[in-house]
Specification:
Length: 382
């Protein structure tokens, strides 16, 4: 990490200074936009009071005043809110700000455009050079992510429907109770890590439930996966092998596999391996016992066990069709911290360097798991 900090101060110093200027400009623009909104708001209210005061008695004026007061409080609380939806794929402390993904509030269309422009600048000027420290011949697309079919092929999320659009459309027409899947992402990276051809992106998969009607209606939200989804070459695979994380418990892993077996023609059976640390974090399911043990050599079992022990996240892997699919429940990855540009907050330009260090650490995980799976030596041996 000390070498990387030196790299930030030398090779990336110019980009960081540019981003600092852009962040200050963004902060000033948001302040002016908020001030403009409140001036318009106060002007309309002043005119309203002057015009209507002569027609209102004291009671109705009081009712209007109280309603206007609460409207202002609600508007302000939404405007300055800094928490998004709750994380569920990392072990986090209860009632901590770190339990939530930050979601920048929608203020005005112009502000949103400025924020999105700054995000894109961060990715091109800062995040891409950091990724290039690990991945060569890089093709980086900040606004693109994997197609649903590719993620479905991994068999890492067995409860996902075969066709998400058809499922959502059919369920939306149901009365009283239905569920809907949400599939989105960003920041696709393609290139070579060593001799291994890889591609990865940030993925966000969730499910929402609508139930009941009238006063008994309600909506619940469940995060299926949020993090980094990676695909790498892995030759000579004839059968399917899936490693389910024990992060959420063995019962959930077995339930997922039972769903998958109902959908697949060839059944996956649970494989027992002799490594205590690995078994704490993973359950192995495969069509073929011999190939599964060939893939999961003692060295790889030990490496994956250590990786899971050291990193606080859900980890899932599958070996299918000469590819390895890896899902790392890191959460939000390629988004800079913008909480300090919100109204009434002091700007903190040091957050840009912290964002850079965070991206470096997250991409280091990709490099680590490629090394732990010995993918480069596997390709060379072929």
């Amino acid at each position: 990490m000390s070498e990387f900090k030196t790299y930030l101060k030398t090779d990336l110093s110019r980009q960081i200074e540019i981003l600092k200027d852009k962040k200050v400009n963004l902060k000033n623009y948001i302040r002016k936009e908020i001030l403009r909104i409140f001036i318009i708001y106060l002007t309309i209210n002043a005119i309203y009071i002057l015009v209507t005061l002569s027609f209102m008695n004291g009671f109705w004026f009081f009712i209007w005043f109280v309603g206007n007061f609460f409207f202002t409080i609600i508007f302000s609380s939404k405007l300055f809110d800094t928490s998004g939806r709750m994380k569920s794929f990392r072990k986090v402390s209860i009632n901590s700000k770190d339990d939530f993904y930050f979601e920048f509030p929608k203020i005005t269309k112009n502000v949103n455009q400025k924020v999105n422009a700054y995000l894109l600048d961060c990715k091109k000027l800062l995040f891409k050079p950091i990724i290039e420290l690990f991945v060569v011949n890089i093709d980086y697309s900040p606004k693109k992510f994997f197609k649903y079919e590719k993620v479905f092929e991994s068999n890492l999320f067995p409860h996902l429907p075969v066709d998400i659009n058809t499922y959502n459309k059919e369920n939306n027409n149901k009365k009283n109770s239905y569920s809907k899947f949400h599939f989105k992402g960003s920041d696709t990276v393609q290139g070579y890590l060593g001799d291994t051809n890889i591609e990865f992106c940030e993925l966000d998969i969730s499910e929402s439930y609508e139930s009941g009607s009238g006063e008994t209606s309600g909506k619940t939200y469940r995060e299926i996966f949020h993090g980094l989804f990676l695909i790498a070459d892995y030759k000579n695979i004839q059968f399917k092998t899936v490693l389910q994380s024990e992060f959420l418990g063995s019962l959930i892993s077995e339930f997922d596999m039972s769903i998958l077996n109902l959908r697949e023609e060839i059944k996956l059976k649970k494989i027992k391996v002799q490594n205590f640390k690995f078994n704490k974090h993973f359950s192995v399911y495969s069509e073929d016992d011999i190939e599964a043990r060939k893939i999961l050599s003692p060295v790889i079992l030990e490496n994956l066990g250590n990786f899971a022990e050291e990193n606080n996240m859900t980890i899932k892997l599958s070996f299918i069709n000469n590819q390895v699919f890896i899902a790392l429940g890191i959460g939000q990855i390629f988004e800079p911290d913008l909480r300090d540009v919100l109204p009434l907050r002091k700007i903190n330009l040091d957050l840009i360097e912290k964002d850079a260090e965070r991206i470096y650490n997250e991409i280091s995980l990709v490099s680590d798991i490629i090394k732990d799976l010995r993918l480069n030596s596997h390709i060379q041996s072929d």
